[in-house]
Amino acid sequence: MTTATETPFLAPSPSPDSEFFWQGLRDRKLLVPHCTSCDRHFFPPMPGCPYCSANADQIEHVEAGGEGTVYSWIVPHYAFDPIFAKEVPYTILTVNLDEGARIVGRFKGEADDVKADMRVRAAYEDRGSFTLLYFEPVDEA
Predict the structure, then answer these.
(1) What average pLDDT does the chain have?
(2) What's phi and psi for 70, nearest 5 deg?
(3) What is the rounded (10 degree) CA torsion for 35, 39, 41, 47?
(4) What is the pLDDT of residues 78-109, one digit of tens each?
(5) Does the reported pTM lie above 0.90?
(6) What is the rounded CA–CA span in Å between residue 4 and residue 51?
């Protein structure tokens, strides 16, 4: 069986607005935009604040704690590109970070184990020249 780290992968094409995010993942940090005008975190990265319309000079990139709760999830069973064929099915989570931003990442675990409002934490997986964001369950025992 081929593991996720052995499977070829399509590399992301970072934009000027998202380069900090991808570099943060390589450094094992979950960086998110924070608006200094309205004090809100948001995702995805963009040139201004989606809440108060502050411009780029009022946006800073801060390290999130990496923990949050599952908002939603999907399990693709069909590879929309042949390069993903050996990876399906896999689980993609939408996570409400404790800082307030909502972000998407893969789940490290079985799809049947995912529950709404389940606590998860960021995890990272290198894929050649880039790093992917994953989430794993937080052991609350």
Answers:
(1) 92
(2) -70, 125
(3) -10
(4) 998 888 888 899 999 999 999 999 999 999 99
(5) no
(6) 36
Bridge partners of 124? Answer: 133
Nearest to 118 by CA among 94, 99, 102: 94
The token pair at 107 is 């789940």
Q: What share of the chain is helix, strand, coil (3-state, %, to 5)?
A: 10, 35, 55
Q: Specify the amino acid at residue 135.
A: F
Domain positions in the chain: 19-137
In Å, how far are 33, 72, 138, 139 from 40, measured between CA atoms? 8, 21, 25, 28
Tokens 């399990």 sit on residue? 75
pLDDT at 4: 47
Residue 6 structure tokens? 């052995």
CATH architecture of 19-137: Beta Barrel (2.40)
What distance in Å separates the CA atoms of residue 44 and residue 55, rounded to the nearest whole number? 15
Q: Which of 39-48, 78-87, 113-122 has the lowest mean pLDDT?
A: 78-87
